[in-house]
Amino acid sequence: MTETINTFFIPLDQAQVSLVTAVLHRAARDCRAVDVPGISTDDRSVVTLGGMAARWAAISEREEYCEVVNVHGERLYSVPLTLEEWYQARAALSEYAARLTRTTGDASSQRENHRQATRALLLVDRITEVIAHG
Predict the structure, then answer these.
(1) 8 with 130: CB under 8 angstroms?
(2) Deepest in the core among 12, 40, 72, 105, taking most CB within 10 A?
(3) Distance CA 91, CA 54 (A)
(4) From the centroid of its chain, how far is CA 95?
């Protein structure tokens, strides 16, 4: 993890980037977030779920706003976000995990929900740890 001027770089693998992207898109949709006219995705002074979802889509789909390195055949994305942006991502992941644990269904779907919730919470822990030691 590297920190430069209130920006924290946390390396993530493709599965983690995809998870954050999906969770933020769902959070933005569920809260009916809209883009604020006149504020671009590049404007880091205003943090919105819609803006974060768009930024993470660009990271996931076009590898923008990040550095991508290949380590032992695995692509790692070094994602630079402000402390507020990481807090928002962490909150969305936590809410996603909580929602998954409240759903009901057959044993197979409950196992999958538990697996997905665990992945989200492990990423929450990782973000928390990196920020705390930054």
Answers:
(1) yes
(2) 12
(3) 17
(4) 12
* Most distant CA atoms of the chain, gap in Å: 48
Both structure tokens of 130: 């990196």
Rounded distance, CA 64 to CA 77, Å?
10
Task: Give the angle subtended at the CA of 48 by the CAs of 56 and 95, to the nearest 5°.
Answer: 75
Beta-ladder partners of 80: 9
Task: Note the pLDDT of residue 47.
Answer: 78
Distance in angstroms (rounded) separating the CA atoms of residues 67 and 83: 18
With a cut of 50, which residues of the chain have pLDDT below it? 1-4
Strands of the chain, DSSP E? 2-4, 7-13, 67-71, 74-82
Give the number of other CB atoms < 10 A from CB of residue 99: 15
Tell me the pTM: 0.84
Please report, as a single letter, which amino acid is at residue 14.
Q
Q: What is the pLDDT of residues 72-107, one digit of tens each?
A: 999 999 999 999 999 999 999 999 999 999 988 888
